[in-house]
Amino acid sequence: MEPLRPSDPPRVGGHRLLGRLGEGSTGRVYLARSVGGTPLALKILHRPGRRVAAPVRPPHHPCLVPFLGGGSDLDGTWEAYAFEPGPALSEAVLGYGPLPRETVRTLGGLLAGALAALHTAGLAHGAPHPGNVLLAADGPRLADTARAAPGGDPAADILALGRTLGYAATGRSPHDPADLADVPRSLLEVLQACLDPDPRLRPTAGDLAGELGGTPVTGWLPPPLAAALAERTAHRPWERPEPAPPGSRPAPGEAPRDDSPENVPDPPPGRRGLLALAGGGLLLAGAAAFGSRLLRRADGTPAAAGPAGARWTIGLQADLSGPLARQGRGQHNGITLALEELNGHGNLPFRLALAVHDDVGDPPSAARAAAGLAADPAVLVVIGPTGDVVADTAARVYQDAGVPVLTLSAGDFAHRADYPTVLHGRPATRDTGLAIPRCLAEADRPPARIGVVDDRGADRHSWLVTRAVGSAVDRTRTALVPKVLPAGTEDFAPVAAELLGHGVDAVVYGGFADGAARLALALRDAGWHGTAYATEAALDPVFLADAGEAGEGWQFVACCTDALADPRTGGFAPVYRRRFRQDPEPYAAEGYDAARMVVTAMQRTVEEGESLSRSGVLSRLRGLTYHGLTRPLAFDGAGDYAGPGPAAYRYQVQSGRFRFLGPVPGQPAGAGE
Fold this sequence. Notes:
The structure is a single chain. Helices cover about 30% and strands about 20% of the residues. The protein is globular, with a radius of gyration of 26 Å. Strand 2 and strand 3 (about 25-35) form a beta hairpin. The protein has 17 helices and 24 strands. Helix 10 packs across helix 11 (about 460-470) and helix 13 (about 515-525) packs parallel to helix 14 (about 540-545). By secondary structure, it is of the alpha/beta class. Keywords: ATP-binding, Nucleotide-binding, Signal. Belongs to the leucine-binding protein family. InterPro entries: Kinase-like_dom_sf (IPR011009), Leu-bd (IPR028081), Peripla_BP_I (IPR028082), Prot_kinase_dom (IPR000719), Protein_kinase_ATP_BS (IPR017441). It comes from Streptomyces carpaticus.
């Protein structure tokens, strides 16, 4: 990074510029820092003689650098992207020489997957060249995504990708197949196809991704380059503090140090007295016995009550009226049950309130919901959001405000490393996907050929699941038949016929409930009788209604348990029924556990003589292991789930209903280590 020059503006779009990262044909790129401290790559576009095309928002993909926003001011038109500290491919090859062939294959497979996501969305990148490919520990990142062109030429992207991979393998950019004489044999045919003079004969991005493979994992770079990348990543120039102006107020992300009643707003009106109480606590069986265990100090003596009326708020951001409303309502009710119980005991050193914001499963609404909760200084922790679609949008707001977030049902964040205040209270989507091969391998008759259907209508979720399945299947014993469905596919008959033509005896589908139902119907109509698996994304009454009898026998893996059927949840379901007059919805028991874990962290903070603050509670949560009703909750240094599991739970459609089969054997990746 070069220092700023006197001609460079100090701020653009409210973001403070820290240094120059480089300059290309479309603009000059700076390292910048948002008001909340998030590092950004901010590009000020050159002023061409013609009108600058409006930026597009690219689809989510782990190898596409996210576009975070843009605008125009006196300093020009600018675009902000997530900052990637790694070197460009051009810089890496110049400094360390051509890359090993396996590294190039992984590079090509992941970049092809990123281009396939753009092409499926009707976009063409237009410039996948070595200067636009950034290297990270878990895979490459394709930059300049806001310049992708609607209706562009996908075949031109493939040509550029072939030249980029040729450069990575040889140190020079080939222009046609004749320039590939020194390319390793294992890459030669693929690159020759990419450079075919006839655009119609070039492979699609999806075909390339399937041919080259590649899963985002650490260890893909050669050791010298990996070491240099690690050193660069550890250097964090955006963390240099910016002096606060004299007399400035505390940032919105800081809770008040004084927990007196006048500094904490009153909680919303609660509904108390409706729980069946016995002996001061709810009578539930099991290891997570409700009541006094939480409310005692380490020496076993009861915790003293705090100042009368001192209140703190737990926030809930949930989809309560959108596509994941069942999961959102389950979390809302489970958290409500826990807080009513804890307030009812009266021996906590504080009072508890719940602030609920419905984001309807929509990213703009999620940003507003997160901003509202983050701006309330009484909100110490937020539980949520509900779904992957809004996860990054909300996490970015909370990270900027320093708000701890405990997420229960969102399985994946596109840029997880950017959100250290986020604690992942469940195994990630990839770990859930890895549970499917374990289930198939333990069947009475393990399948010999597995069809893996990646439905791009489910975006990242389907991609992560199907990639995980593909990486875990033992290819020496089991053949894999991968299929990619473009977003919006409604006729599943061709893919069903193709799967049957390959003789598959098991099918894994990565998409949503409506697509799973279409696939179930198409497979039945084609006369197929085998084992079919899908994920939590399809575990929805929509599947039962749309698939009908064709859905019988389908199995699903999910991160939420069934509080009605899981014996480990003890008496949770009866108490839930008495309180809400209905059976527990998905993630109700998980919401209960999360709320109690948060309150445990709050209590330990107070017992150790500290005032409650967001940073203090986040620190306690990171070091805490909470043995809840559903699964032990614990986190690793990155905030990801690190408990012993279960990695997932298994369900099967029987007689038109989802039947709970119990935990999937095995542990999530890294659990318990």
